[in-house]
Amino acid sequence: MTQKSGRILMVDDDQDILIAARLLLKREGILVHTESQPDRIPLLLKEEAFDAVLLDMNFAIGANTGREGFQWLRRVLEIDPTLSVILMTAYGDVGTAVEAMKQGACDFVLKPWSNERLVATLMSAMTLTASRREAAQLGARNKELAAALDQPGQILIGGSPTMARVLTLVDRAAPTDANVLILGENGTGKEVIAREIHRRSRRSSQVFVAVDLGAISENLFESELFGHKKGAFTDAKEDRVGRLVAANGGTLFLDEIGNLPLYQQSKLLSVLEQRVVIPVGGNRPIPIDVRLISATNMPVEQLESPDTFRQDLLYRINTVELRLPPLRDRAEDIPALVAHFMGLYARKYAIPPRRLSNDALARLKAYHWPGNVRALRHAVERAIILGAGDVLEAEDFSLPSAPGGAPRAAARLSPAAMAPAAGEDGLTANALTLGTLDLETVEAQVIRRALDKHQGNISHAAAELGITRTSLYRRMEKHGL
Ligand SMILES: Nc1ncnc2c1ncn2[C@@H]1O[C@H](COP(=O)(O)OP(=O)(O)OP(=O)(O)O)[C@@H](O)[C@H]1O
Question: Which residues does this entry mark as bearing 4-aspartylphosphate (predicted)?
């Protein structure tokens, strides 16, 4: 790999040496920043991006132990462990050379140097830096891949005419690398569709990285997406590779994109336009190559309002727009979905397969499913656990008696009831002002309040309640909200 466009930082207190090196490296097409004061190293590394450091070992007058060189070597590696450092000295001996390598230097040059050898050493140092940086990115990507391997293969059910139309679009869009925006209520299967697009795309052997923008706190947004350098802020104890870089070569799924505040939308837009990210506290732009799929449950009118969403960002992310119909508009899919989930949970709980009564199926098809496929899935899970006979009846699904009506109290054994009880996570805050001490009622009231306060935004309500979105969904379902 030729790295002739690389950039070197050379630190030596001898101006003649710096001039000689500058002339030599210029001829070789290597950019070099020369510096005579080593204490400027931290600042320089912060301000500029370098691919290798050439460091003298002795700075104090008369010094020849190399002690300062070792000290600055440690400092450089603390700041950027991927950077290759070459030490140089006029007093070098094998012992110092060995010690320098042990402490993390990648090579050692004796003064006066041979031009050819110096250039060759610098070239391999720059290549080493590049591969260390690539390895860090690969590590992050591998983590994502390993997480994907842990996930069971997702089965996509969608035989209804409305879903068939969506799947035709998926078919056409998937191989094109076009950015896709998926719109739909919570639980309609936006992530399932995003994974399907990835699976059918040219990037299918690469990683699929899902980022729930609604779950990232505002102050961690940049660090999570773009990464950070060690020391960029108090908690940045190590370098961190951002999710955008981890998704390199693959598909990046940005869920709940409608939740981003406007100023974060600007940051995201500029990254998408320039196709590079600069980690927080860093200075080296990292090129990114991702296929972007975004999703939101925000109604389209709101998304098209400049007060809520940057329209230039919208144009960038919605080359193809898919609208997932709510489950109530595709009741034809319900039998297949129920059969699929019944099989899934019977296997999971090692329960013999059960049948479904006609009445139960009719009730499931007639219900308006405000929580969509996710809620249906949970209802089936509960029925599988609680249903006593060989045939599951309508009552086993704990459906509200009329659409929008109050749900039956969830049985003690339901998965929802198995979730942490209210009170363990702050859900009973202010219980005394609610006029009742019945735990279930209080929980429902608190959740309703949180949802009202955040205009139905699940991520924000969950964050305020101090629980995960999944946990909030379970509770909403339990209370028929
Ligand atoms: N067509 C489908 N076939 C099989 N399972 C589905 C389908 N659609 C959704 N599901 C299941 O429903 C649940 C919710 O799906 P998913 O997470 O994709 O919805 P979402 O729209 O992304 O939700 P949210 O808006 O909350 O992010 C998942 O468990 C998923 O497996």
Answer: 56
Q: Does ipTM come in above 0.90?
A: yes
Please write the tens of the pLDDT for every residue from 333-392.
999 999 999 998 988 888 888 899 999 999 999 999 999 999 999 999 989 988 888 899
Residue 67, C-beta contacts closer than 8 angstroms, at least 6 positions apart: none
Question: Is there an atom of ligand 1 within 6 Å of 52 CB?
Answer: no
Q: Of ligand 1's atoms, which has the minimum distance to the CA of residue 376?
A: 12
- pLDDT tens digits along 130-182: 888 888 777 777 777 766 655 656 788 988 999 999 999 999 999 999 999 99
Mean pLDDT value across the chain? 83
Whole-number Cα distances in Å, 207 to 74, 138, 204: 35, 11, 7
Residue 188 Cβ inside 6 Å of ligand 1? The answer reads yes
- Structurally, at CATH architecture level, domain 7-133 sits in 3-Layer(aba) Sandwich (3.40)
Domain boundaries, the chain: 7-133, 151-325, 334-415, 419-481
DSSP state letter for 280: B
CA distance 371 to 263: 30
Which CATH superfamily, name and number, covers 151-325? P-loop containing nucleotide triphosphate hydrolases (3.40.50.300)
Residue having the nearest C-alpha atom to atom 6 of ligand 1: 189
> 159 C-alpha to center of ligand 1: Å?
15
